[in-house]
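Please decode residue identities from the backbone states below.
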């Protein structure tokens, strides 16, 4: 039985939080209500204590997108949901996705709705996915909602794949460059510096520095490994503290170049997810909660919580977003136009596509500059080693003459 984390208020007005086990969110809310707790937030416990994301498919985003699109196609052909899920399960190869579809079929056979059945598979389907499916069932446009979901998943996977492919070459250069430098410092430099051992003449400062670094790599490699491991363990522990994550995310947004890239990516994700939720019929307050959870940057998440409070009090989304420099005027104005014309979903979709295009362009430009910079850095590192080795040799030649 799934476990749900909740936040809410007791009958005496005190805040409370904890965990409750139930078949789905509705049962969890009912159980809490019977215990005298008014739940304001209920979320399925993430597997292995991991953080919740918008879509968390263990089988991979492409597989989930394909399954979603196939389901939309079958439902649009007037096939009952039970038969559609059964068809998908029968053609799926043995694995996690087939097992999930089998359990979904069993729940549908028992009379459960599709959204309620998906809610019990929190390891694969996120709350946003489930909320949009529930809205699609309620509005009678489930096939259209599933089509939009599949398109969104495919677009997100395309962005991830594009970034991964673009970073492959720079990362390879960094790994190869570090490997070459470690080989030179650990094996080549010690053999060359033996020549200077009997030389009583003062060595150049650059050569002394190179010898000390080489000695550290040869004799203190274990210390370097311990330092790296300790840093990794400390960083992972700090990641459990919300205050540290908030400071880290704010720092990332201020970094030259990288901060602008990250902001464009977050804005694109925010606009597309919110537009997708609103277009699927999810209420605006609930859509804002899900969008804030999907935006992983804590600086944005913290501000979006304030925006949700403004909306609850009757404020406008554009006016709330304009209060923070995290949201540029372009997005604020497009949201304002959407509010006035009643085309909020379309405006958010356009804004998301615009920021995604800016992100792709900026990424291409950034990587085109990064590659020559990496080549230059490798050249300077090798040049440093060569100069440090040749300077003492030139001095010895001068002494011999």
């Amino acid at each position: 039985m799934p476990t749900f984390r909740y936040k809410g208020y007791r009958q005496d007005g005190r805040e409370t939080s904890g965990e409750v086990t139930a078949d789905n969110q509705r049962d969890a809310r009912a159980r809490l209500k019977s215990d005298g707790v008014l739940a304001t937030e209920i979320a399925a416990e993430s597997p292995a204590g991991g953080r919740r994301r918008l879509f968390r498919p263990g089988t991979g985003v492409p597989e989930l997108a394909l399954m979603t699109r196939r389901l939309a196609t079958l439902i649009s052909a007037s096939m009952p949901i039970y038969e559609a899920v059964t068809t998908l399960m029968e053609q799926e190869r043995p694995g996690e996705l087939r097992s999930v579809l089998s359990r979904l079929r069993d729940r549908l056979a028992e009379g459960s709705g599709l959204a309620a059945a998906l809610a019990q598979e929190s390891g694969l389907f996120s709350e946003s996915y489930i909320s949009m499916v529930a809205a699609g069932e309620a509005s009678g446009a489930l096939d259209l909602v599933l089509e939009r979901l599949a398109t969104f998943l495919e677009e997100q996977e395309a962005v991830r794949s594009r970034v991964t492919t673009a970073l492959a070459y720079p990362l390879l250069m960094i790994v190869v460059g570090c490997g070459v430098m470690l080989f030179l410092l650990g094996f080549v430099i010690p053999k060359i510096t033996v020549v200077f051992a009997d030389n009583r003449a003062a060595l150049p400062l650059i050569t002394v520095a190179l010898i000390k670094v080489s000695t550290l790599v040869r004799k203190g490699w274990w210390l370097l490994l311990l330092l790296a491991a300790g840093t990794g363990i400390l960083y992972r522990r700090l990641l459990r503290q919300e205050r540290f994550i908030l400071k880290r995310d704010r720092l990332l947004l201020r970094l030259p170049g990288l901060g602008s890239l990250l902001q464009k990516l977050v804005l694109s994700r925010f606009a597309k997810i919110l537009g997708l939720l609103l277009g699927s019929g999810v209420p605006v307050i609930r859509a804002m909660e899900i969008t804030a959870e999907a935006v992983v940057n804590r600086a944005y998440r913290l501000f979006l919580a304030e925006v949700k409070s403004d909306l609850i009090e009757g404020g406008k989304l554009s006016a709330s977003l304009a209060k923070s420099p995290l949201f540029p005027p372009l997005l604020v104005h497009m949201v304002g136009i959407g509010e006035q014309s009643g085309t909020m979903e379309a405006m958010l979709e356009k804004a998301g596509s615009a920021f995604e295009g800016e992100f792709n362009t900026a990424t291409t430009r950034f990587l085109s500059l990064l590659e020559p910079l990496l080549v230059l850095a490798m050249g300077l590192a090798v040049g440093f080693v060569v100069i440090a080795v040749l300077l003492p040799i030139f001095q010895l030649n001068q002494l011999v003459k």
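Observation: Strands lie at 3-10, 15-21, 37-44.
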